[in-house]
């Protein structure tokens, strides 16, 4: 079987394939019935060792709309609290013969470790500050739809400049998006205070900025990220007011970006810190709710594609190379 652990493990044609597969589910989700039986009889476990609203709910909805039986394990209410190790938890989940396991964990690499211990496809729903692959895929789908609706759509993002601003150091969303957007041809700028920018990230092809206004200059898309206070230890942590003064996306600052620049945020947002409400809610410019909508379709596509082999349908690796 094949897992979905990281954008770094996907080739460009595989990213494009997953985006294409999601289109049928975007359509289905806009109908009143919203049901398919593609995954009927399959069991999906969502094992979340970290809090989530969007990712957990959209994976649950995705599995149910595809007809699967979906069960959620919240670590806070599980035997993890009684000292069970990650590997023993993985062996326990495996013994229940799930057909796919979706995992969020606070430690980078934990999802890959679990994947090595189970017999079914594993989907990474975010591991520490490493990767959040389905977030990057849904962001790409939302961006593509937004550009399409303006008549500016194309298969990839060649010629587009995307600025990602926030706590890049701790952000799995930034890492997955950097890789995904670059694979799709975009130029990616990363902007953060020096203490929240990983050393050497230029080697991944990013343009690095510490001055937000310079980064915004001419950007077609601005993706804002929150400060991940829960992952900070030892760094200089700016106050919310200081951070907003230097790095908050205000309406005035947005003027520095390209005309009509789109605004994105993976959520959860801290309004008034990294983004002002009048920007987050800006009609025709903010695609934050479209990102959430696309999250369900992308997760349906990922669950469908990754479980095909188990269902006797041609597997992912068998798809023609683009
Ligand atoms: N974007 C995202 O991963 O949100 P949640 O933490 O609410 O799942």
TrEMBL record:
Catalytic activity: carbamoyl phosphate + L-aspartate = N-carbamoyl-L-aspartate + phosphate + H(+)
Listed GO MF terms: amino acid binding; aspartate carbamoyltransferase activity
Domain Aspartate/ornithine carbamoyltransferase carbamoyl-P binding: 2-144
PROSITE patterns per UniProt: CARBAMOYLTRANSFERASE
Pathway(s) the chain acts in: Pyrimidine metabolism; UMP biosynthesis via de novo pathway; (S)-dihydroorotate from bicarbonate: step 2/3
Keywords assigned: Pyrimidine biosynthesis, Transferase
Example GO BP: 'de novo' pyrimidine nucleobase biosynthetic process
PANTHER family for the chain: ASPARTATE CARBAMOYLTRANSFERASE, ORNITHINE CARBAMOYLTRANSFERASE, MITOCHONDRIAL
Identification of the protein by name: Aspartate carbamoyltransferase
Species per Swiss-Prot/TrEMBL record: Qipengyuania atrilutea
């Amino acid at each position: 079987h094949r897992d979905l652990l990281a954008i770094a493990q996907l080739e460009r044609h595989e990213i494009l394939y997953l985006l294409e597969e999601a289109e049928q589910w975007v359509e289905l989700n806009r109908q009143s019935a919203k049901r398919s039986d593609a995954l009927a009889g399959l069991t999906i476990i969502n094992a979340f060792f970290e809090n989530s609203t969007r990712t957990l709910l959209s994976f649950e909805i995705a599995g149910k709309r595809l007809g699967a039986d979906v069960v959620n394990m919240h670590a806070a209410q599980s035997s993890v609290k009684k000292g069970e190790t990650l590997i023993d938890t993985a062996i326990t989940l495996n013994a229940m013969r799930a057909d796919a396991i979706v995992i969020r964990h606070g430690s980078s690499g934990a999802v890959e470790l679990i994947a090595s211990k189970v017999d079914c496809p594993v989907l990474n729903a975010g591991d520490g500050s490493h990767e959040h692959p389905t977030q990057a895929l849904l962001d790409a789908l939302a961006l593509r739809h937004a550009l399409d609706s303006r008549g500016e759509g194309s298969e990839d993002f060649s010629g587009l400049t995307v600025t990602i601003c926030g706590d890049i150091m701790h952000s799995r969303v930034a890492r997955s998006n950097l890789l995904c957007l670059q694979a799709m041809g975009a130029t990616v700028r990363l902007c953060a205070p020096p203490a929240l920018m990983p050393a050497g990230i230029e080697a991944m092809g990013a343009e690095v900025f510490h001055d937000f206004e310079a980064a915004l200059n001419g950007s077609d898309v601005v993706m804002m990220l929150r400060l991940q206070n829960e992952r900070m230890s030892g760094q200089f942590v700016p106050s919310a007011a200081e951070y907003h003064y230097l790095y908050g996306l205000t309406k005035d600052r947005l003027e520095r970006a390209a005309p009509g620049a789109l605004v994105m945020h993976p959520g959860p947002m801290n309004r008034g810190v990294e983004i002002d409400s009048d920007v987050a809610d800006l009609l025709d410019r903010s695609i934050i709710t479209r990102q959430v909508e696309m999250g369900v379709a992308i997760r349906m596509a990922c669950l469908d594609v990754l479980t095909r082999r188990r269902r006797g349908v041609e597997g992912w690796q068998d798809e023609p190379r683009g």
